[in-house]
Amino acid sequence: MPELGKISKPSVDRFKNKKRLIYVPVFFVPPQISEIKENNPFKDYWAEIADNINKLELSLGKIDIIFHEMNTKSKEEGLSIIENLNPDGIDFIKILHNSGSKISDFENEELITELMDWQRALSAGIMSQKAREMISKEYSDTNTKRNESLLNKISDELKTGSNGILFMREDHGLQFDNETEVFYVSSNTISKVHEWLKVEIEKLMNPTNDGK
């Protein structure tokens, strides 16, 4: 996977017979944390991401389609969902959309809600080992189906010679085919995001330890 900043000016000619997918890591943050202003690194993170993608577009051309994790709708309805999912990155995504990038109804709504139900069941403290194993299997099977659905969506909607952008968590686990050239958009501030989130999530989960 080429990483922006580690490749020299990618030429569209080199990738003209491929589907080109720009991958941007995103974070789904609880509202209580997202609203914190002190030392919040997300403004800097998204400013750097936007700058890197703008440079990449100069080489590859404009982005044709936007894939965003957890979004099940297209057009303005999809944009509204993305705004709720990713309030820190929505300004840049709106700029892409206003420049002509299409919003994909990326997720299969039935699969994503089923996956979330199995996830909730796993975190419910099931006492029986047999029940836990059954739920774990259902979760794993549903997650596999979801990943297949996401890959099929990208394959169907991202045409050869065109550019897409994928906003998805780092642990997505998707394995792209050889027809798709994936560009990972790196950020010098991503380590700060991880560190800040770790601290703030710990404060949220253990409020009595805050400040100690």
Give structural notes:
The structure is a single chain. By secondary structure, the protein is an alpha/beta fold. The longest helix is centred in the last third of the chain and has 29 residues. The N terminus is likely disordered.
Strands, helices and their partners?
Blueprint: E1 19-25, H1 31-34, H2 42-60, E2 65-68, H3 75-85, H4 90-98, E3 102-103, H5 109-122, H6 129-157, E4 163-168, E5 180-184, H7 190-205
Parallel strand pairs: 1-4, 1-5, 2-3, 2-4
Helix pairs in contact: 5-6
Instruction: Write the H/E string, N to C.
Output: EHHEHHEHHEEH
Structural class: alpha/beta
Summarize the main sheet.
Answer: 5 strands, parallel
How would you name the oligomeric state of the polypeptide chains in this document? single chain
> Order of strands in the sheet with the most strands?
3-2-4-1-5
Number of strands: 5
DSSP strand content? 5-15%
Per DSSP, the total helix count is 7
Radius of gyration computed on alpha carbons: 19 Å
End-to-end distance: 42 Å
Features:
single chain, 212 residues, alpha/beta, 5-stranded parallel beta sheet, 7 helices, 11% strand, globular, disordered N terminus
